[in-house]
């Protein structure tokens, strides 16, 4: 298992796309029950105010000396993180293929889940919290930049990437949420253009000119709700393969369950990448709340490229 990740018990390795799709789409989820729509929050607002309520675990009653009183929850046990997000409603309607100009529910739910685990110092946190603090993160398809704003305080460096047309919106949102005393150039977050289709069209020898990789590989690559149209799958997977370093980078893919055929094609292509050098696991849905809830509308896969020597035997 990858040292950065703690998968829930009963998580399973993915070896066959058809079997995985059958398991995913045969379980009940909130997608159909709640009529979630396409998955964005509100495409009519120019600005959204998002609040993440974080709480420490409830302590068991602990009598005080001679008083018989219980330990009370203090203000320090609870915290609210507020983030304001600008949206580009016009681009959503007028720019073909642009779905990243509005905030999507998957990013909010993932941010809530990870912020809560970090705040509670959860011993079974999805990411090893100590390692996470020194990790570098690359997000593919960052859209409005919500996750970079929410999660960058938890990591060492965060690179938010998307098509060129979305980088100004991400920059505005970063500036909007930085402390008054902090300038963007002193933030641990960078905003970069990375168009998967452009990268995919380039020969391997020219890709480093378009998107140079850092000397120290990324520790984590996030791909959140980017799987929705089959035409984008080859370029998305090519980008995942390009930015992931064998034996180092863990790729976390979170998606809302929609069309079965798109999910199947994505998995078939991912399993076939590099002649099978990718190891892919599905995080089990076995809790009562959060992205791993039993009726969660999401699936979370984690994958990494195994070292070549281990693949060759």
TrEMBL record:
InterPro entries reported for this sequence: Methyltransf_16 (IPR019410), SAM-dependent_MTases_sf (IPR029063)
Region (Disordered): 58-78
Classification via Pfam families: Methyltransf_16
Protein name, UniProt field: Methyltransferase-domain-containing protein
Species of origin: Mycena chlorophos
Lineage: Eukaryota, Fungi, Dikarya, Basidiomycota, Agaricomycotina
């Amino acid at each position: 298992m990858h040292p950065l990740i703690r998968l829930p018990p009963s998580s399973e390795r993915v070896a066959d796309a058809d079997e995985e799709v059958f398991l995913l789409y045969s379980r009940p989820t909130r997608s159909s029950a709640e009529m979630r729509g396409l998955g964005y929050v509100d495409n009519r607002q120019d600005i959204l105010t998002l609040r993440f309520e974080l709480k420490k675990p409830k302590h068991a009653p602990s009598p005080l000396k001679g008083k018989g009183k219980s330990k009370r929850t203090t203000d320090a046990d609870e915290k609210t993180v507020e983030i304001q997000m600008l949206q580009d409603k016009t681009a959503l309607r007028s720019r073909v293929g642009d779905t990243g100009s509005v905030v999507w529910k998957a990013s909010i739910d993932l941010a809530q889940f990870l912020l809560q685990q970090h705040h509670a110092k959860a011993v079974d946190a999805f990411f090893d919290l100590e390692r996470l603090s020194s990790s570098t993160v690359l997000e593919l398809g960052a859209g409005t930049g919500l996750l970079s704003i929410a999660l960058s305080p938890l990591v060492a460096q965060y690179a938010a990437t998307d098509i060129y047309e979305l980088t100004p919106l991400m920059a505005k949102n970063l500036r909007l949420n930085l402390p008054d005393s902090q300038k963007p150039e002193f933030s641990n977050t960078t905003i970069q253009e990375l168009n998967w289709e452009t990268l995919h069209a380039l020969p391997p020898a020219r890709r480093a000119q378009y998107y140079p990789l850092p000397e120290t590989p990324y520790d984590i690559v996030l791909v959140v709700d980017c799987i929705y149209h089959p035409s984008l799958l080859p370029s998305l997977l090519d980008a995942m393969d390009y930015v992931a370093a064998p034996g180092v980078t863990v790729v976390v893919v979170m998606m809302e369950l929609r069309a079965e055929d798109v999910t199947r094609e994505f998995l078939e292509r991912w399993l076939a990448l590099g002649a099978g050098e990718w190891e892919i696991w599905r995080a089990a849905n076995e809790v009562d709340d959060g992205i791993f809830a039993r009726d969660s509308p999401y699936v979370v896969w984690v994958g990494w490229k195994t070292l070549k020597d281990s693949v060759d035997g």
